[in-house]
From TrEMBL:
E.C. no: 3.1.3.1
Record region (Disordered): 559-587
Pfam families to which the protein is assigned, alphabetical: Alk_phosphatase
Gene3D superfamilies: Alkaline Phosphatase, subunit A
This protein's UniProt keywords: Magnesium, Metal-binding, Signal, Zinc
Catalytic residues of the enzyme: 224 (phosphoserine intermediate)
Protein name: alkaline phosphatase
Coiled coil: none
Gene Ontology MF annotations: alkaline phosphatase activity; metal ion binding
Cofactor: Mg(2+); Zn(2+)
UniProt binding sites for Mg(2+): 175, 283, 285
Organism: Periconia macrospinosa
Keyword Magnesium: yes
Annotated signal sequence range: 1-21
Length: 653
């Protein structure tokens, strides 16, 4: 996907940095030449498994060059509170691990990049795997290296109540969803009279509202992989990382891991796990629950971890989720390391579902893998309004036929709850349900499709609350609705699309935009004749007066602020091919205004933004989620509510 091309190019070449505008970094979260992961300020759940990675760097050239080989005799100690520091081997009663060595290179700034002069760094490193701290309190971890230099990390094992207060958790993630988008979705999906809405979003009805800060460990803008890691593990990480801190080695699989909420919940309680997403399943937000890799693009590895967990060394008892529903059939019919995962899942007793009809008909007693399309799932707008767009070669079997019978997020989520409830008994369940294409459609500036996905998420939440209420399990289920990051989206007025199309000059076309009193009222409920069983969607997606909406940072594009009836938008195209130089797509937004981008020209899409994102909470422990806090606090809140903080080592695992 091109949306991540620029991210992965950037992240592969550039590892961390320090100062000004486009910062390149030697290694994120390691400003000195001695690196400790988990780094300073890391918080842990008592009993949560994690790996330690130590690195000593010796830059061979560049501004930090020290002209010496890296220290091979570095030592590492750990101390709780005021206690005397103990060598790590003594602290955890483990063998010392072998010394590793490698080199890596990075660019110190844009000038070095343009001149193709990378700085080369020689590294000595060690890793200690599968450790846990059981006693709450503050710890000091110290790496001593280079004859007297030291890197200290203060770690906190949080002191959480051990009593379990909720049986189940549903975590809804509107990928990329912000308060501004919720406001816009409400405007088109709900009828208003004289400034008063006649109905509310389901999210609006949640009793507790919080704000979480989404920034990553080494950059203030996050991607979905490292924000998923923060929410699922309580540890901030680096762009593209899933369940690991990023080290500097080449392998994307040897980075220091941290255990996720799904793994801990399953290991300690035997509770069941469900994963639902409208993205391809190997995508970051679903992947983050089980995968542990520096590179979110290791899709084969991701799918293997869904089924088998970590296989390199015994990390945790993992026997697969009860429910895995979404898109991305290409990872299930194309072999990875000679294994075809439809077959692998079937061998482990999963029923394989490939369309909506069989999803709805499936028994609730068996575990289920539901993969309903190749690539990302069809958008709500295409499944419900512009259905001819489903006519593409995306069948989940890989036979190149269209995937016409796809479920929506609501059907997948309700079925997941049926299966989890049926199978989990007293043990309870944890379900993550992601509206992935809010983000994917905002990336391509397809605001209508993004808002359609958001309204579908809200409709799903409403149906979930009703279902749990009907089955008497609402009071034993914590429901959270949040996002992993935002996009700089907002609505600033309205557009008279008829007037816009009738003008010939761009500066005159801008008259079509109505601001303040000329914005008027939303036309999406008043015109048109679309009706749905659950009616909180627009009656028309194509009124004359549309929303004047957009993002803070864009590629070049042409805007006519009208719905894209022919399928998801392609705002910019590469000219010439393979030039990494993107211009407004001449076929997009005809009769619209040409707007030049502000992003670097290799971007064909919009990007994530800094904004805090909302957290709506309902159910047991809802009070833990009010106020303003860090994304990692979501993990600790869920873990506390599920009673997962264990002060003593479990007798057996
Ligand atoms: C690692 O150390 C060994 C032994 O000193 C050396 O032969 C090898 O070239 C080193 N590898 C790297 C990548 O520096
Ligand atoms: C550092 O050394 C490498 C390999 O010798 C070289 O390619 C690179 O240009 C050097 N970088 C700087 C900043 O001098
Ligand atoms: C540390 O001390 C040793 C012995 O005095 C010396 O050989 C080495 O170069 C020193 N290393 C650093 C990084 O200063
Ligand atoms: C297992 O670990 C080794 C070394 O730590 C690494 O090279 C390899 O890629 C890992 N494999 C997987 C599947 O994680
Ligand atoms: C996959 O199968 C081929 C052909 O049988 C074999 O050469 C290769 O080693 C296998 N790869 C793995 C990872 O098992
Ligand atoms: C749905 O899947 C079932 C089972 O694979 C298959 O028999 C049926 O034909 C499919 N229905 C459609 C509409 O594709
Ligand atoms: C589906 O697409 C194919 C190829 O683009 C086309 O030939 C066919 O007429 C389309 N069918 C429908 C029902 O739109
Ligand atoms: C749950 O159902 C009861 C009985 O129908 C109703 O009174 C109550 O408002 C419902 N609660 C929620 C949160 O929907
Ligand atoms: C209303 O419905 C009719 C018939 O279903 C359709 O032809 C027409 O285009 C619709 N009008 C609008 C404004 O959506
Ligand atoms: C606006 O652009 C879209 C996408 O190219 C196109 O489908 C639509 O017809 C255009 N609408 C108007 C009113 O020009
Ligand atoms: C937009 O960019 C094009 C070149 O890509 C340039 O010719 C044009 O002047 C720019 N327009 C504005 C309004 O800056």
């Amino acid at each position: 996907m091109s949306s991540f091309k620029s991210i992965s190019v950037a992240a592969a070449v550039l590892l961390a940095g320090s100062v000004s505008a486009q910062t390149f970094q030697r290694l994120g979260a390691c400003p000195t030449l001695g690196c400790v992961f988990p780094p300073d300020q890391a918080d842990f759940l008592a009993g949560q498994f994690f790996d330690i990675r130590l690195e000593v760097h010796a830059p061979k050239n560049g501004t930090e060059a020290i002209g010496l080989p890296p220290d091979e005799k570095f030592t590492f100690t750990l101390a709780k509170g005021d206690e005397a520091p103990k060598p790590v081997t003594e602290y955890f009663a483990i063998q010392d691990s072998k010394l590793e060595n490698w080199t890596f290179s990075w660019y110190e700034d844009l000038f070095a990049r343009d001149a193709k002069k990378p700085t080369v760094v020689d590294v000595r490193a060690k890793a200690y795997r599968r450790l846990a701290l059981y006693e709450p309190g503050e710890y000091t971890a110290t790496l001593n290296y280079n004859n007297g230099s030291s890197t200290k990390a203060t770690w906190l094992v949080r002191d959480l109540a051990e009593e379990r207060k909720t049986k189940n958790v549903v975590l809804f993630i509107g990928d990329g969803m912000t308060t501004n988008m919720i406001t816009a979705a409400r405007l088109i999906g709900h009828k208003s009279i004289n400034g008063k809405y006649q109905s509310k979003m389901q999210m609006d009805k949640f009793p507790v509202l919080g704000h979480q800060m989404t920034h990553s460990i080494d950059s203030f803008i996050t991607d979905s992989a490292n924000s998923a890691s923060a929410i699922y593990t309580g540890h901030k990480s680096t762009v593209n990382c899933l369940g690991v801190y990023a080290d500097s080695s080449k392998s994307p699989f040897d980075d220091p891991k941290v255990e996720t909420i799904a793994e801990i919940f399953h290991r300690l309680t035997g509770g069941h796990v469900g994963i639902v997403s409208t993205a391809f399943l190997a995508d970051a937000t679903p992947a983050g629950l089980t995968a542990h890799t520096r590179a979110r693009s290791e899709y084969g590895h991701v799918v293997d971890t869904f089924l088998n967990g970590i296989t390199n060394y015994t990390w945790t008892k993992w026997d697969g989720p009860d429910v895995l529903f979404g898109g991305g059939a290409e990872q299930f019919y194309t072999p990875y390391l000679n294994k075809t995962y439809y077959t692998e899942f079937a061998k482990k007793g999963y029923q394989i579902l490939q369309n909506r009809t069989s999803l709805l008909a499936a028994p609730n007693t068996e575990r289920a893998l539901g993969v309903f399309t190749t690539s990302n799932m069809a958008k709500w707008l295409d499944r419900n309004v512009y259905r001819s767009n489903l006519n593409q070669s995306l069948s989940p079997t890989g036979d190149k036929k269209p995937a016409l019978d796809q479920p929506g997020l609501k059907e997948m989520t309700l079925k997941a709850i049926d299966i989890l409830s049926e199978r989990s008994g007293d043990k309870g369940w944890f379900l993550m349900s992601e509206a992935a294409s809010i983000d994917k459609m905002m990336h391509v500036l397809d605001y209508d499709r993004a808002l359609g996905e958001l309204l579908e998420l809200d409709d799903t939440i409403k149906a979930t609350v009703n279902k749990l209420n009907e089955t008497n399990s609402l009071k034993e289920t914590l429901i959270l609705v949040t996002a992993d990051h935002g996009h700089g989206f907002d609505v600033m007025g309205s557009v008279d699309t008829r007037y816009l199309a009738a003008q010939n000059v761009d500066r005159k076309k801008r008259d079509a935009i109505g601001v303040y009193q000329n914005s008027g009222l939303s036309q999406y409920q008043n015109t048109g004749n679309l009706t749905y069983t659950d009616s909180n969607f627009p009656k028309s997606w194509d009124p004359r007066y549309t929303l004047f909406q957009g993002l803070m940072a864009d590629p070049d594009r042409r805007e006519n602020w009208s719905v894209h009836k022919d399928g998801p938008r392609t705002p910019a195209v590469e000219v010439p091919e393979d030039s990494d130089d993107y211009y407004a797509n001449p076929k997009d937004g005809k009769d619209g205004i040409l707007l030049n981008g502000t992003l670097p020209v290799e971007n064909d899409q919009g990007v994530h933004s800094l904004t805090d994102v909302p957290v709506f909470a309902m159910g047991p422990c809802q009070e833990l989620f009010g106020g303003v806090y860090n994304s990692v606090d979501l993990f600790f809140g869920m873990a506390e509510c599920l009673g997962l903080g264990r002060g003593t080592p479990p007798a057996e695992q």
